[in-house]
Design brief:
329 residues, mainly alpha, two-stranded antiparallel sheet, 14 helices, binds Phenylacetyl coenzyme A
Length: 329
């Protein structure tokens, strides 16, 4: 069912003249800033695009626990461990709100999990990179959560009600995550020479993968035009990437770290930083499953699904027993 639904995405944006009466009325509601709720009429493509985006986002939150979970047992102090544990648990919660939002569109969580495990659905490219040192945990909080917030704050105004409401709560928690990452980077950057080098190395490795989180450049983005017209996305990929660079460069300067881009320069005419594009061939290779950790991440998700089978079976057995008892009464 999922594969069938997503086939209808990625078309060009229909002009008013091409729209049916229902589609035109729907677009009027979007243009007027109304929220669309699950039982409202919506075009198939709107439903499919939302399922794809929300579920990919949910999968990203869940898979995103893995690189940080890797450091829970090795956090340098009890306090850092407690903070990291709380953050990783928050990511699980974000995944759950988002799966629930996707389910309001008529797809089940099991179908979405199947689609992740059979490779027909994606999760964010960033989580296919390893976290090699403690400074990487700082970089993930600072840059990865920073990029996630840049993308998600506008999504609080997305046109689909359940997605927009999930985003409001998620953004509050992501802000705390970003601050804790920056705090780790501050300690490392102001620490010993070895710690400062570790912080710089983490920035060097996470900079371009963080820029890739916003998706391909606008000219290569398949879904942006229609998603922006439907206010599923509020900004294009390049707009958000530029905002992220503009926000992050002064933060790096405050930390005394250098962004690994010789072309980076404030453009006095535009007021924005000019920067080098990420290596898009690397991005598309990661999407195809050829990043450094794709296999590990999918193996971990498959194992979690298999290990959880007894819980699902137990719940089903309990529900069937209860239903049989209710029917007999
Ligand atoms: N990774 O046409 P577009 C987080 C795919 S949450 C993988 O531009 P769209 C929290 C895209 O799906 C991070 N695939 O697509 C956290 C499409 O392929 P498809 C997740 C990507 O949807 C922090 C194709 O490329 N956030 O990090 C990526 O209009 C720390 C063409 O692209 C969200 O999901 C990518 N980076 O724009 C957790 C936010 N980029 O599906 C733990 C919501 C693109 O046709 C620790 N999502 N693709 O096969 C969005 O805003 C959008 O979906 C974009 C992509 C902007 C990601």
């Amino acid at each position: 069912m999922y594969a069938q639904m997503v086939k209808s995405t990625g078309h060009g944006v229909k002009s008013r003249a091409e729209m049916s009466a229902e589609e035109a009325h729907f677009q009027d509601r979007i243009d007027a800033g109304e929220k669309i709720e699950p039982k409202d009429w919506m075009p198939d493509g709107y439903r499919a695009t939302l399922i794809r985006q929300i579920a990919q986002h949910a999968h990203s939150e869940v898979v995103g626990q893995l690189p940080e979970g890797n450091w829970v047992t090795r956090a340098p102090t009890l306090e850092r461990k407690a903070i990291l544990l709380a953050k990783v648990q928050d990511e699980a919660g974000h995944g759950l709100y988002l799966y629930c939002a996707a389910e309001t569109l008529g797809v089940s969580r099991d179908e979405l999990t199947d689609a992740l495990l059979d490779g027909s659905m994606k999760y964010s490219s960033i989580f296919n990179y390893p976290t090699l040192t403690w400074a990487d945990i700082g970089a993930v909080g600072w840059l990865v959560d920073g990029a996630a917030i840049m993308n998600q704050v506008p999504l609080q105004r997305t046109s689909f009600g359940p997605y927009s409401r999930a985003m409001i709560r998620i953004c509050k928690e992501e802000s705390f995550h970003q601050r804790q990452g920056f705090d780790i980077m501050m300690k490392m950057a102001q620490g010993t020479e070895a710690q400062r080098r570790m912080a710089q190395d983490a920035l060097n490795r996470f900079w371009y993968p963080s820029l890739m989180m916003f998706g391909p450049s606008d000219k290569d983005s398949v879904h942006s035009a229609q998603s922006v017209a439907w206010k599923i996305k509020i900004n294009t990929n390049d707009e958000l990437r530029q905002k992220f660079v503009d926000q992050t460069v002064p933060q790096a300067a405050y930390l005394g770290l250098s962004i690994p881009d010789p072309e980076l320069e404030l453009n006095d005419d535009t007021g924005h930083y000019d920067f080098s594009e990420p290596d898009w061939s690397e991005f598309f290779a990661v999407l195809k499953g050829n990043g450094p950790c794709n296999t590990d991440r999918m193996d971990a998700r498959q194992k979690a699904w298999d290990d959880g089978a007894w819980v699902r079976d137990g719940l089903m057995a309990h529900a069937e027993k209860r239903n049989a008892r209710t029917a007999a009464e």
